[in-house]
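step 4 of 6: structure.
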Amino acid sequence: MARITIDPITRIEGHLRIDAVVEGGQVQKAWASGTMWRGIETILRGRDPREAWLFTQRFCGVCTTVHAMASVRAVEDALALDVPLNAQYIRNLILIAHALHDHIVHFYHLSALDWVDVTTIPKADPAKAASIAESLSEWPGNSRQEMARVQKKIVGLLEGGQLGIFANGYWGHPAMKLAPEVNLLALSHYLQALDFQRKATQVVGVLGGKTPHIQNLAVGGVMNAINFDSQATLNMERLYMLKDLLAEVVPFVQQVYFPDACAIAGFYPEWFDIGAGVKNYLAVPDLPTDSRSRNFDLPGGTILDGKLDSVRPISGVRDPYFRHGVVEDVTHAWYKGREPQHPWKGETDPNYTDFQDEGKYTWVKAPRFEGKPMQVGPLATILVGYAQQHELTRKWTDLALARASAIAKRPIGVDKLQSTMGRYLARAIRAAVLSDLAIRHWEFLAKNVAAGDVDTFNPPHFPKDTLEGVGFHEAPRGTLSHWIVVKDGALANYQAVVPTTWNASPRDARDVPGPYEAALLKNPVANPEKPLELLRTVHSFDPCMACAIHTLDVEGRTTATVKVL
Amino acid sequence: MITASARISVLGLGNVLFGDDGFGPFVIQSLRAGWDFPQNVCLVDVGTPGLDLVTYFQGTDMVFLIDAVGGSGVPGELRLYRGRELKQMQPKPRVSPHDPAVLETLLIAELAGDGPHDILLVGVIPRSLDLGVGLSAAVREAAAAASELVVRELANAGADPVPRHRPDTPDVWWMRGPTLPDRS
């Protein structure tokens, strides 16, 4: 028996720690721990609700806009304030572009190297790599010359002995199975993806004023002035600048990222049988298409016990099923309190005990939906949409499964998505769905403005009463909700229930584990010193933990360790 | 070789909600308030972007990073590092996208062939990185020295900032106390 601890912490920094007991080449028990206190919400008490989004945007440096958006939506819900159509479309375009950027970066730069062995690339035949690429996609950036160029670059790196960015991979690991040509193809797209993720960020910048922290939000709408006669506003030129950027990003998603994810899935079909974990799913509806946020372009709902026919829709933020369904349990988290609390009543009162296997072991609370742990993220979005016959979700999911099945030479059905590989594939499916919606929402905006509507903002009015509100957003990592209490115009409570809190949740009072912990059970581990398989499952969730501080360690101390006891 | 048309980015790193970790963003706002910069110099408060930092390295010739740094030293002590020294650090296994990624960003930009030729890190030893807004006195003092240092280095690179006759108040909105809306 071996106990593995993957712990990227130092004295001044803390993120995600995973502990796993391995016996007989499989994980028998696992713990997920957030090692940094997340009490950021306490900073907001007493502040102006109209300003909260500026602060919540700083919760997390990777998910800036999503926390800004959930915050203004929470205040709008508390005030029952409508949002002009233009503002909805502008916000939707920002959210879509942010998500496309995020999904591209996750696939290529944060997790591809768990599957792609860079050190085999010198053995690849560039012509064969180009012909494999041609069989997968009509993308023009897959020429034999391009493959040879990338191969030369990697050969130079490996021969120089300075692996640079690749210094840390588990190269030569028995779980790495791709042909050298497929590794070469993937790495050439890793490099191309750098340009396209940036173009997606530029969409956010054009609409939001700045990145990574957008400037254009307001409770009641957006601050973008629309005037076709002015250079300083959202005019025809800017609208077409956006369209040009989308015309580059959308084909990259549909012709590179999506086919690559299908191919990786097809080459590693065994990973459709690993890592399901918690099979309850939660997604909220998003991309509102009316000013009262009653209709959405992406459906939300729940699925229980992995049964697609159990789907129950969530109609909007006013749906009591969602509004009253969420509680947070702190039995195994380093906080005071006994009974699970609804976020409006939530407290964040620390009670640190050290890491106790059977006691408290994390700073992450355990959110529960009607008492159950829920998995959130692209997989939840896709399953909930598929089960509700959402047209775009059906189109891209069926295509993804057909492509992966063809490569694997075995049928892979929609139920197989409930797995480690399913989470990777669902993220690519979601990106493809969003890329279609990017074009649609650009057209909505252009058409509405052309019809003469230039409204972007409804001013908020604050009564003296006590108000409760919730704002949600189906973020790249899953359901995000901000819960606020406003008293006499000031924030009296603020709780953010973030996607990674759902997924990295610890056990609850009944000892039911959260999604990471459950997904790691029975996960194979060939070599406890090199737990690549374990990282594949953890990375499939796209963890985003601490919403952390940034301190560069200039004295070269190790900030991540794999320890085997 | 840095020329007059070189694209230079000055990036403030850190989380303004965690005390002295707001050093980088604070220095960016101080620079904006006190000087006018040539068009080829771009100042950005980038927060805590993890690997998303790569976006702000692409297409640049020179990058300044301003950040709190972990290391032995007295709070408020400034440290200056140049490209070569930064690259000697080892990249770490990554679990979440948040792990500080300056080195990884540098290596990725290098691999892609569109990263900066020159990089300079202006670091400060923090006193406190606890939850809360505002800098400690020692680090606030260091912020003024760091601004001067960045201005000098920019001038050396041929991109002279021009001091304002009447400096603005730095827009450090996160350090303002709460003001509330009118209630009816």
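step 5 of 6: annotate
 - Chain A has a mean pLDDT of 92.
 - Chain A touches chain B through 78 residues (CB under 8 Å).
step 6 of 6: archive
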